[in-house]
Backbone:
């Protein structure tokens, strides 16, 4: 009697393992944009109730600052800087301060483990959360800008530039806030860093640059929100230099890409620890 190997038989064990092995292969990984849309919707519905009161606080804070500055600064370039800085401050309060707190608490509570178990790219988690938080800044920024223009007698003709300023400045500040929250070893430190970042946006963005010392001006140039403030403030003039406006917006966009990339790296680093 001859011995025949089992793998050559049609119904052999090894022959049966091949379809099973191919059937056990994992499906394709979730794509970035559908995952990003899903995370964005989830974060938007989650933060809608909790963040709207804070958005009112950010708006009233910026309006109060403009009212206080009305009796201090002169008309012209100083008024333009105050209105533009106060409008972008709403973005900084939500996208930088609150997002740093959110990711700091998420890391401390183990919430990153939930996202780590999902077939979602890390970039989708960071971008979805950043986009959801930045979306809350739109109404507050517009209200602040309109109120400031009426208060200081500035033209309303070019307020459409906020359509570009809000997402670009929001991306830069949201990426910075997410990175601070994910890199901070404790949630209390993440909250502190977010508060310091918002305070820097307040002091360096709202106050006119002409009245600052040279060292402070250099620090101001390192802040991502500065270029959003400059782009918005340039549009109040009778004949805006759109080349400089586009240049400031381009800087915001580049900083936004870099800061979100750093936040994505920080998410991967925090999720595997």
Residues:
């Amino acid at each position: 009697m001859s011995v025949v190997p089992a793998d050559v038989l049609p119904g052999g064990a090894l022959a049966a393992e091949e379809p099973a092995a191919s059937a056990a292969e994992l499906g394709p990984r979730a794509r970035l944009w559908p995952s990003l849309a899903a995370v964005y919707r989830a974060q938007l519905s989650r933060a809608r109730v909790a963040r709207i009161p804070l958005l009112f606080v950010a708006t009233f804070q910026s309006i109060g600052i403009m009212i206080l500055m009305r009796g201090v600064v002169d008309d012209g370039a100083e008024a333009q800087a105050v209105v533009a800085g106060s409008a972008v401050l709403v973005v900084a309060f939500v996208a930088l301060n609150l997002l740093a707190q959110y990711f700091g608490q998420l890391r401390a509570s183990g919430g990153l483990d939930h996202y780590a178990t999902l077939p979602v790219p890390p970039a989708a988690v960071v971008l979805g959360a950043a986009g959801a938080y930045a979306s809350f800044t739109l109404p507050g920024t517009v209200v602040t800008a309109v109120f400031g223009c009426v208060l200081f007698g500035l033209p309303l003709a070019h307020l459409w530039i906020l359509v570009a300023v809000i997402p670009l400045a929001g991306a830069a500040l949201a990426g910075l806030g997410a990175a601070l929250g994910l890199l901070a070893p404790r949630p209390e430190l993440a909250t502190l860093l977010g508060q310091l970042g918002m305070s820097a946006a307040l002091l360096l963005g709202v106050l006119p640059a002409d009245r600052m010392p040279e060292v402070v001006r250099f620090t101001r140039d390192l802040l991502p929100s500065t270029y959003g403030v400059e782009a918005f403030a340039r549009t109040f003039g009778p004949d805006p230099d759109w080349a400089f406006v586009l240049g400031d917006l381009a800087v915001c966009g580049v900083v936004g890409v870099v800061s979100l990339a750093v936040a994505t790296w920080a998410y991967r680093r925090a999720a595997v620890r």
Q: What stands out?
A: The longest helix spans residues 32-70. The CA atoms of residues 168 and 250 lie 8 Å apart.
